[in-house]
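Q: I'm writing up a methods section and want to include an example of the input and output format. Could you take the sequence below and give the corresponding predicted structure tokens, formatted cleanly so I can copy it straight into the document?
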Amino acid sequence: MNDPVGGSRPPAKKRPWGKEQLRNGRDEMNLVEFPFATLSDRSDGVQVLEFQVSDSDRESGLPVERKLSVTGDPKYGLPTAKDEEVYLGLLQLTKHHNDFKAPDVRFTRHELIRLLGWPNNDWAYERIATALARLTGVRLFYLNAWRDNANKVFKDRGGFGILDSYQIRDARKGNGPVEELHSEFRWNAVLFESFQAGYLKRLDYETVRSLGTKAKRLYRYLDKHFNPPKYARLVFDLRTLACERLGFSRDYDAVQIRRALQPAVEELEALGFVTVEPVETRYRKIGRGKWEVTFESGSGKSPARVGAQKTTSAKVPLGRRQPSAADQRVAQADAAEAALVRDYLGSLPEGDRSRLESEAVAAADPFLRTLLESSGPMVETTANLILHKHVLRLIAAEPKAEDV
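A: Here is the clean output for your methods example:
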């Protein structure tokens, strides 16, 4: 069997990705505050993303508007959720290969695929090429929102991409000099300047890699702002968090936001990253159409331990039991099942998901089809459930390794 990277010797520093290495990842903090990619792996015709929050200046105390505008590459469009995954993978590659000492990084796509946890197939190789094109072609425009960590100020910074350039070489095609077998990319100078100024935070990349798209963004945002004991409990305006920080549709009302956000919250609860909280107390109405959402750091404790702590807390409503060990096992099984479905959908060539969704509806139970055809509030949830069940059936029908 040929070497997966074309028979070339890997760079001396290249090692298998171990758990400790994955847990000691990095994240650039400006790109945590506002998203630069869509929440799905499709842009659905959207050409520009804009995010804006009202804040107060740290020095003067005066109100200030902070804004990010994102424009996509004319040919490839806006970055999507999968491109954001690739961006995070490139950050980890950079730490691994040169510890952010140089903007140029040489790598193989096989190495990046292993790091991302993607299936090792033609789709993954082609999808990485698309991601690099989008990350090079995207343009970011910050208004009072780019943190200059060297000078400790927020400033305008606009018209730059994430990558300056990239070159893909197919290391699967044979032997040859290392420089002819390894792909490479170069970080944009503005972003690399932020790396050099130390505006990077530690990131448990192993955990991030295991999460769904919404949970990834929520995890990264909370991870930046949790700083126990002073900031162990965070309270956000629900709409601002969901729409401006995570990229949810502004067409959603508060009910739709809570319904879309809650599965991501439950993923983080299952990890023990945030404490388990009843929905009734996590989301609090503070005015007409205005809601707050609260998160308390789980400090890495297991959900069972968090549950035991909260049983003695006055914040737990009477009559509501805490999750048992069995509940936690069910939650972990559900999370593993959801990860299988995400991986399957992520491995599909672009454009095939619509066909799969149609197949799923055709094969769905009559009751679920009736719910889907209604105009009630459960349409989106029902559509996701139908697709989830269909993908699980397809996975179960696939031949196992011992059957081949």
